[in-house]
Amino acid sequence: MKKLYIRGGRPLSGTVRVSGSKNAVLPIIAACLLSTSPCTLEDIPNLADVDTICLVLEHLGAQVKRDGTTLVIIPPQKPKTEAPYEFVRQMRASFLVIGPLLARTGLASISLPGGCAIGSRPVDLHLKGLHMLGARIEHGYGSIRAEAGKYGLRGNRIYLDFPSVGATENIIMAASLAEGQTVIENAAEEPEVVDLANFICAMGGKIKGAGTKVVKITGVRELKGVTHTVIPDRIEAGTYLVAGAITGGNILVENVIADHVKPVLAKLLEMGIDVYEEQDGLRVIGRKDYRAVDVKTMPYPGFPTDMQPQMMALMTCARGTSIITETVFENRFMHISELKRMGARIKTVGRNAVIQGPVALSGASVKATDLRAGAALVLAGLCAEGNTEVSNIYHIERGYENLLGKLQSLGADIWGQA
Ligand SMILES: CC(=O)N[C@H]1[C@@H](OP(=O)(O)OP(=O)(O)OC[C@H]2O[C@@H](n3ccc(=O)[nH]c3=O)[C@H](O)[C@@H]2O)O[C@H](CO)[C@@H](O)[C@@H]1O
Ligand SMILES: C=C(OP(=O)(O)O)C(=O)O
């Protein structure tokens, strides 16, 4: 789809089911390369990023079969060792195959991911971790070549300068088949890291402490395929909670782990928006008048950077001055200029955005610059007066399954152009 059109002003109501988590499923699909037998993955969202990682695995020799929300991955007995730029260019998360490939074959050659709209996003911590496990790392011609050497990977103690999600995942995957014990200190604690660890443990791996700052991995000789259901997408859940709030609607968001969205819930409650836990999910009841709050993005369990643009859209309609401090990515404010086109009053000072509300947003032609920026503009369009046209929808399709259909089922006046 090329564009989304929204006629704003309708309070959303009804029930929406959250899909499987994009950020959990991508490393889990990469981890299938660690297995010597087929893996079955359940509740797989239909997303462009999932298609891309599946293409990477197929390129490396795996067979991938999809049936609805089930994905069967038959890993290759002898994987190829090279993932070219063609894939990494489309999706940075392709870099997650370096850890499992290195562990399984002793060699991995991957194009270096470039920066993207939200920041420069280096991979130094991934490489530092793999080097600490004994890999020789060479840079050249835009690629990274990692080689395990004669004795294979060996467990080690690795301190991460920053709790990088991807680096923690790559190191966990590589260490799962290494000789001896690896200890990751200052590891990322995100629920998606825990889901990956649970998957590897079900395959026969030995991982303790996932979800805390210290993760201990004892390498095993072989991992075998299992069936695993991925966790619900906490960012998609948060986005629908904001959709209910910003339209003054009443929505039940199903298939959500309340604990995973706690930082978002805390802010919605602080704003005076009603959110209740019900048997089947979380109910949000929006209101016309709600308070400004301050938000600082942090690694989990702090407020997720992936919810920052959506929260900013909500803040434009809150009473008073809200401040967002973005501490995770150095350039994640591209949505501001687009929100301003819709009437938002926002100033930036370094990594802080000062949002003055409430304003009555008005529809405009705006452009999604990245995935969550796109979601924020759709949310703004839902509450704006008049028509909003959001272009560059391919960004949104990376991470939201059937956003158009789900919003339509909640009563939004939204349609798409192919
Ligand atoms: C596919 C996936 O799961 N993506 C998520 C993952 O991305 P990703 O795994 O790329 O995010 P990281 O946690 O690694 O990055 C966080 C910060 O650390 C920096 N950094 C990271 C690695 C490194 O080697 N060196 C370095 O300096 C990054 O530039 C960034 O400023 O976590 C982010 C932070 O919650 C989310 O926004 C992304 O949606
Ligand atoms: C930044 C995101 O994803 P990725 O790391 O895949 O770019 C995101 O999901 O908001």
Automatic annotation (TrEMBL):
CDD domains: UdpNAET. UDP-N-acetyl-alpha-D-glucosamine binds at residues 92, 121-125, 306, 328. Pathway: Cell wall biogenesis; peptidoglycan biosynthesis. The active site is at residue 116. The keyword Zinc-finger does not apply. It catalyses: phosphoenolpyruvate + UDP-N-acetyl-alpha-D-glucosamine = UDP-N-acetyl-3-O-(1-carboxyvinyl)-alpha-D-glucosamine + phosphate. Residues 7-407 form the Enolpyruvate transferase domain. Phosphoenolpyruvate binds at residues 22-23. Keywords: Cell cycle, Cell division, Cell shape, Cell wall biogenesis/degradation, Cytoplasm, Peptidoglycan synthesis, Pyruvate, Transferase. One of its GO terms (molecular function) is UDP-N-acetylglucosamine 1-carboxyvinyltransferase activity. GO terms for biological process: cell division; cell wall organization; peptidoglycan biosynthetic process; regulation of cell shape; UDP-N-acetylgalactosamine biosynthetic process. Its EC number is 2.5.1.7. InterPro entries: Enolpyruvate_Tfrase_dom, Enolpyruvate_Tfrase_sf, MurA_subfamily, RNA3'P_cycl/enolpyr_Trfase_a/b, UDP_GlcNAc_COvinyl_MurA. Gene3D superfamilies: Enolpyruvate transferase domain. GO terms for cellular component: cytoplasm. Signal peptide: none annotated. Pfam families: EPSP_synthase. The modification 2-(S-cysteinyl)pyruvic acid O-phosphothioketal is found at residue 116. Belongs to the EPSP synthase family. MurA subfamily. NCBIfam families: murA, PRK09369.1. Cell wall formation. Adds enolpyruvyl to UDP-N-acetylglucosamine. This is UDP-N-acetylglucosamine 1-carboxyvinyltransferase. It comes from Desulfoscipio gibsoniae DSM 7213.
